[in-house]
Design a protein that fits this description.
The protein is an all-beta fold and 403 residues long. The protein contains one helix and 26 strands. The chain has two domains: 179 residues, Sandwich (Immunoglobulin-like), CATH 2.60.40; 147 residues, Immunoglobulin-like (Sandwich), CATH 2.60.40. The strands form seven sheets. Strands 2, 5, 6, 9, 10, 11 and 23 form a seven-stranded mixed beta sheet that branches. The longest helix is centred in the C-terminal third of the chain and has 6 residues. The protein is elongated, with a radius of gyration of 26 Å. One of its GO terms (cellular component) is cytoplasm.
Length: 403
Amino acid sequence: MGKLDLFEINFTNDQGVFYGGQLVQGHVTVQLNTEIKMRRIRLEFNGGARVKWSETRSNGQSTYTVVYSSKELYFEHVLVLFGKDLEEKGDNPVLQPGSYTYPFSFQLPKQLPSSYESSIGRVRYTVTAVIDRPWKFDHKCKRTFTFIDALDLNLETNAAQGAIQQGEKNLCCLCCKSGPISAVLKLDRLGYVPGEDIRIHGEINNHSRRKMTSSFAEIRMTVQYHTPSKTRTVKNSVSKIYHGPIREGGDDIWNGEALVIPPLPPSNLRGCDIIDITYTVTLNVDPSGPAFDLVVPQEIIIGTIPLKSVAQLYGVPAPMPAPISVAMPLPPVDYVNVGSSNIPNYQDLPPPAYVESYFGKVDVHDDDDNEHTRGNMEYAPVYAYYNWNEHNTNTFINVAQKK
């Protein structure tokens, strides 16, 4: 058994979910069975974004790898919990055997991008406790937390507006031009929050000489990862529903079928300049034979605070915005004492649940982590999730998501 029996970080907010201007509060617990000589126990608060991927190239004679990367730092703060200050000289203190608890508090900036994790890029927020020992390896413990940028749909100009999009495609049949296939997509609004349904209305007309294999509607998430020399675009289908075949000369009607929005980060990833996120609803027609799909797209906004008009439809009282200096009471931590915030206070809006990201957990080991780093190294950010059929009360839901 080593000298260190227990070394962990706990948040006062058990969910580990925070909004702009909130206090990240908690305590570090250290339990020793033998004394340890150290410089200090320090706590590091870090928030930043990173993009990195590699590509294999060939010059005809050999292959080589090109690495693309970029970083952003949003905050970095160090707090000494025990021992010498960072620049202090002199003898190193000794921590005797026993159990110790060190409280901490750190106020987050008011504006930060939402947490996001993928294999190519991330926005990540961590608290790391370090037992800094002279001439020996340091003990480390790391805890990752979720930050949610409050994207209020009531402040988005187009969120409550409907939209109509249409498209047409001509197919060739046995070297002869066939009639077109056409599609119309209608949405009653453009702003949604995770947990809501997107009702699909539309019509597909098959004037070709072919039977269409199927039609389907889906939500597409498009993520752009930027580096100084190249941008990489990744598209994912995060929700999809199908209709069956469409005979030649036939029609297909979509009459309010529901696409459910899974737990996802808000649109745009505001505040991050190296990762962009957009969402699009598409109505697609899959022709039989060698032809590309007809795709009718409409960009939507995924926020974190729902439209007041939608809340009323589900029997929820209309929220009353408070002065802009008061923070939103959705997360479980007390906002009133945090200070000013740019988040409106909707007193009557039921709080969301917090649900693990649709994409699941990732490995959060950093380059400077090693076998002496403690903590849960598998992590998934959680996002605000509204189920209008159940009035949630700041619950955390760990659901199995289809990836």
